[in-house]
Structure formats: C-alpha cells, structure tokens
Design goal:
The protein is mainly α. The chain has 7 helices and no strands. The radius of gyration is 17 Å and the shape is globular.
C-alpha cells in the first residue's frame, strides 16, 4: 500500500508542478480527474471535485455518507443526494472504462473498479498526504533561507 501512495504522490506532484504553482487543491483535483479520463463536461465531474475537496479537507470528521447531502446543499438542493451519488457512480464507471489505465493503476493497483466511496476516500487521502508533504517542503525551504540569512550576518 505504501508504494501505491508513493507512485500516486509522485504523480500528483508532477501534475501540480507542470500546471500550477498555486497549490490550489481544487485545481489539482480537477487536473487529476482529467488525467484519469473523467470528461469535465459531465455533471458527476463537478460533484466529484466537490466531494473530494470536502473529504480531503477534513476526512477524519466527515463521514462519506454525509458528503452527498452536503454537496446537495451547495447546489441549493436542486438535486437530491441519491442523484448525486448515482451521478458520481456513473462518472467513475465512464472514466474507468475509457480513461488512462496506467494512471488509474497509480491510485487503484488491484485493477478493480472502485466504488464511489472508495474512489473519493482514496483520492482524498492521497491528496491530503500530498498537501502535507508540500507544506513540509515549504517549511524546510523557509528554514533553509533563514539559516542562510543568519550565516551571511
């Protein structure tokens, strides 16, 4: 499992480096989903971006079953949570069938199509680890600059 995270983290880092210096998690989620083969024009795409973002932000206190009502509230409850879950499931099915299987293997190496909950949880966990490693790298860089500054004095 650890090597899966290493490959996935390396992949996310390369995506973020290539396309963004902003560190905007929504942007990185969007890039990742597109890289996996999710068509960005389908409704499930935006629901997935929201779900992964919400879960990544606080996956220890947010239960997966509570995500769909939360997303429905963001859309002024114009769509109910059951439809959101179905739309996400359909998006995953479509991307799994026609997406980039090499990239899918970075995140789901068993070769089995993940459920909606498995997909959201796995991607959110990996993104959370990636954000943590980015923050650690930023802290190291700032400490190095500080040390260099004091060495010059």
């Amino acid at each position: 499992m650890e090597s899966v995270f290493k490959d996935a983290l390396r992949h996310i880092s390369s995506l973020a480096r290539l396309f963004s210096n902003r560190g905007d998690i929504t942007y990185v989620i969007t890039l990742l989903l597109m890289e996996l083969g999710f068509p960005s024009h389908i409704v499930g795409f935006s629901f997935l971006v929201d779900a992964i973002g919400i879960f990544e932000e606080d996956f220890k206190s947010v239960a997966l079953y509570g995500l769909y009502p939360c997303i429905a509230k963001r859309y002024d409850e114009k769509i109910d949570s059951k439809n959101i879950e179905q739309t996400i499931r359909d998006a995953i099915k479509k991307a799994w069938g026609s997406g980039n299987q090499v990239v899918w293997c970075y995140y789901f190496p068993k070769g089995k199509k993940p459920t909606s909950e498995e997909f959201i949880a796995q991607i959110a966990r990996i993104l959370h680890l990636w954000k943590g490693s980015c923050e650690a790298q930023k802290d190291r860089t700032e400490r190095q600059k500080e040390e260099e500054f004091y060495e010059l004095r």
